[in-house]
Amino acid sequence: MSRFLFVTLPLAGHVHPPAAVSRVLQERGHDVAWSGSEARLRPWLGPDATVYPTGMRLFRGQADNGIASVKSLWEGFIVPFTKFTLPAVEKAVAEYQPDVVVTDQHAFAGALAAVRHGIPWATFCTSTIELGRPFAKLPKAAAWIRGHLATLIAEAGLDDGQATDLRFSPYLVIVFSSGYLLGPQEFPGHFALVGPALSNRPATASFPWDRLDPARRHVLVTVGTMADADAMDFYPRAVEALRPLGDSVQAIVLAPPEALPGAPEHIMAIERVPQLELLPHMDAVVCHAGLNTVSETLSNAVPLVVAPLTRDQPINAANVVRVGAGIREHFYRVRPDQLRASVLALLSDPAYRAAAGMVRESFAAAGGAPQAAARLERLAARPEPAADAGNYPLSGL
Amino acid sequence: MDGPGGQRALGEVIALLRQVIGDDPHWADRVTPAARLDQDLRMDSLEMAALADALGEAYGDRVDLAAFVTGLDFDHLVALTVADLAAYVRACQAGEGR
After folding, report:
1. Residue A16 is part of a domain; what is its CATH number?
2. In terms of residue numbers, what domain contains A105?
3. A213 and A354 within one domain
4. Could you say which DSSP state residue B98 is in?
5. Which residue in the set B39, B47, B69 is minimally distant from A68, CB to CB?
6. CB proximity list for A16: less than 8 A, separation 6 or greater
7. Are A369 and A20 in contact (CB under 8 A)?
8. Which residues in chain A touch residue B39, judged by CB atoms under 8 angstroms apart?
């Protein structure tokens, strides 16, 4: 039996995949504890999870878009969050005495605490933002990020020889996607592309199943949990796109009913749904291309219209288009008639669903949460950094 | 931007941007000299690539948007305006005139 300390960010997309892995580890007899905001983590993890609380405070810059979002992600969230949580994460490591620290790629306090205590650590990539050299063409932006990393390492009393890149563990990097979807790029051997980790997530919302009409096709529209007020403009356009399709289509829009005034009968506004249970009933999904929604949708071989907003969403959208499993639209500019044509294309052309099925197969072959758990077990048994770890990062830094 | 050359470059860049982001007046009307490509016009990487192609077609290799953007630091990337882009085009033209 081994002891794993999971350090993550207080955001749904950064908690669900690790939580699936933690359940597998526990089923295999291991012990898992968490370090994070208890108020945020507890509803997702349930009453039995061990949580070493870090406290929570609000961080600005969570809703920016475009290039500005990368800057605010670091200045407004990653860096202050690391500094704010580091003492509590250090305390959790000291008290829990884990064999392995498993930390979200951007929860640097986990990496810093593990290095400072000489404990092997693994990285969870719950987004694709650092994969695929996103800053290869923006060297000054890359240098700016490198500067932030160096400062955090120095402020923790470490030198570059002990921690070169907090985003990528030299022991094990678990990526919640497949090589097929991520596209042609080389990853070192200590990268485990396990696909999405979806197993056994408890449903947290109910759904009026009797309202689903089996005679019609079904479309889910969601822009995720981080869309800003400007993005709310997307809902009325989606309603107009779907309005004439009532004979053949029912749509579920993840929004409060007041966001869709005047929506016809076949367009249901529902604020929270059990997404994993709902997706098998869907024929198409319109979304912002967040990694979790894309992965969960493709796990059901359902094609997507992807309208990315920020962060890694353009990368995910490009991957969906590259494998032929969907159509990309501009989130702010797509007009209702164009959006309608794209949805109808997904519903009428079986090639999209077939391409989504190929991604589903790649996910199944990648192994999901059980494979992630197996790699973590192997690390606990043989904690050695990869010989070629220094060959990473890929991200142009 | 001073002089008739500068004004001409600004007008041309605005026309090219409107081509790239489409003819929806909601967005076309936002293409003003002070508009930022990132935060105001919401240009994504696909549109930036289309803009680079359009600039190359209009002005030839001397206007290289990718190289221009590569030289910018984060704050300038975020703050890049339509007028900045026109000034870059104008500078490329002036450089070639020497």
Report:
1. 3.40.50.2000
2. 3-195+367-391
3. yes
4. -
5. B39
6. A44, A197, A201, A292
7. yes
8. 64-66, 68
